[in-house]
Amino acid sequence: MRTRLTALLGIKYPIIQGAMAWTSDANLAAAVSNGGGAGIIAAGGRTSEWVRDEIRKAKALTDKPFGVNVMLMAPNASEIVNIVCEEKVAFVTLGAGNPVPHIPTLQAAGVKVIPVVPNVKLADRIEKAGADAIIIEGMEGGGHIGTQTTMALMSNVLAVPHSIPVIVAGGISDGRAIAAALLMGADGVQIGSRFILTTECPTHPAAKEAILKATDTDSAVTGFSRGSAVRCLKNEFTDEFLSLERSGAPQAELDKLATGTNRMGAVEGDVKRGAILVGQSLNVLKDILPCKEVIERLISEAKTTLAKAKDIEL
Known about the structure:
Helices cover 42% and strands 15% of the residues. The chain is built from 14 helices and 11 strands. The protein has helices at residues 4-9, 26-34, 48-61, 77-87, 103-108, 120-128, 150-157, 175-184, 193-196, 205-213, 236-247, 251-258, 261-266, 291-309; strands spanning 15-17, 39-42, 66-71, 91-95, 112-117, 134-137, 143-144, 166-169, 188-191, 219-222, 230-233. The longest helix has 19 residues, at 291-309. The chain is globular, with a radius of gyration of 18 Å. The two termini are 25 Å apart. 50% of the residues are buried.
């Protein structure tokens, strides 16, 4: 399956693994890359030393391209950008800040730059700034989300041709969704939640089990009214957070309640008081498989769906 994204990164399939805090490490990234996609190490919340170590671990585990996600609002973001350049990582995805000042530095080191954008205006700005590709991410995804749905973003951003590959993210959990994005004009997809349910993913087994048991109405969005929305599974934590949010509680009180909950969920397996970050397309997340098998299934489903589309009478 060849697209502008596979040509840009030198990968077999147009699939990038999403960057998930406490989850996207060297083992997961290498497994995705070995399976034909492009794995990503998530630097958010991590020390610079950890990021360098994970990059080197990934290099030992795969000879395929992989990337690093940099949260630009992190205090060590510039240091991590320098490490990425020194280690000659294939590409970076950038979010939570202005990526434009970092584009020349990264590209000068041979690193492909792929910012994440939530709307048409920023997509156009990033393209004009010289990025190698862009990711448009809808609010159906897990973790920090924007305000537009994936379908709306595809309709708006992909309405005109782009000189660089456009990658779609947010609620992409099976091959049918990949086919839909490609038919809409995307060059590839970014997938997070489906890769949580893999044997190589370090997410706690209890958190994986909670995702396996979840259905379509089991996700909640905290912080939406405060401009810092996060999607995760409903539990005691989200119930308390949303109750305080609706009551008009001070932001400091909400921040105190949420601090550390991501780690509690993903690492410690606290499915009641921790945050289990996962996207909204939950009903197709029903088994735990090696990354290679996940990718092969995704591509098979996508090809079947695309073939069916050809049978539609016009």
